[in-house]
Design a protein that fits this description.
The protein has one domain. The chain has a two-stranded antiparallel ribbon. By secondary structure, it is mainly alpha-helical. The protein is globular, with a radius of gyration of 18 Å. The protein has eight helices and two strands, in the order αββααααααα.
């Protein structure tokens, strides 16, 4: 069923939310008095669709999509970098703005890529194992539980690598906590939508995969 249009649609939403977050991260927004990267509005959506992929199609398919998202992100970053170093046309007067907005530093790129892989694989692994343990019951416990751990790993990695030595330790710890809380609450609020999509896919695709005997090595090709 992984060649169905429904599967492709979920993958498309997953990858698009990931790429959008990578661009939007450059803007800081104020939410309830907190300063947060604008990417926080769209990035949790990738976790929602990651949960859906693992819940319906299993860890192995989710693993392939996670790596697909990684290489799509890498292509995006490489393209932005290449265009940035190419000589600007005389009519193009926004090179400085282009570099400032899209020219992420290597430190933040490493932080972003590492956090994404760590968080996404933890999220998929925990959800898949919990599904077997709960015998497919209580979907909300695994979508929320996996997100709490996955988003914690993501927030810690991206902020520690990105800001260690730049911000005071207390400020950094506060940022990690608020990032984690915001993204986790996002997932909780989206739980009814997750149920709706999961039930729809299981009915239409006639699939409800259980990862019994699955090799959870994230580097395996299948």
């Amino acid at each position: 069923m992984t060649n169905s249009y429904r599967f492709v649609t979920i993958v498309a939403f997953f990858v698009t939310s990931l790429l959008a977050a990578n661009i939007l991260i450059v803007k800081q927004i104020s939410v309830l008095g907190l300063t947060l990267p604008a990417a926080i509005i769209i990035f949790p959506i990738s976790y929602i669709f990651g949960d859906i992929l693992t819940e319906v199609y299993g860890y192995r398919q989710a693993r392939r999509v996670i790596w697909l998202g990684f290489f799509c992100n890498l292509l995006l970053v490489a393209s932005i970098w290449l265009v940035g170093i190419l000589p600007a046309a005389p009519t193009f007067e926004a090179q400085e703005a282009y570099d400032r907005i899209l020219g992420n530093t290597p430190r933040f790129l490493i932080a972003s890529f590492t956090a994404y892989l760590g968080g996404a694989f933890i999220n998929a692994y925990v959800l898949a194992r919990m599904k077997v343990m709960t015998k497919g019951k209580w979907l909300w416990t695994r979508t929320i539980g996996s997100t709490l751990l996955g988003e914690a790993v993501d927030s810690i990695i991206v902020l520690v690598i990105g800001f260690w030595g730049v911000l005071p330790t207390g400020v950094l710890m506060g940022m990690i906590l608020w990032h984690w809380l915001f993204k986790s609450v996002y997932e909780i609020i989206a739980t009814p939508l997750t149920y709706l999509i999961v039930n729809y896919l299981k009915t239409k695709e006639k699939i409800d995969y259980y990862d019994i005997g699955t090799n959870f090595n994230p580097l395996r090709a299948n």
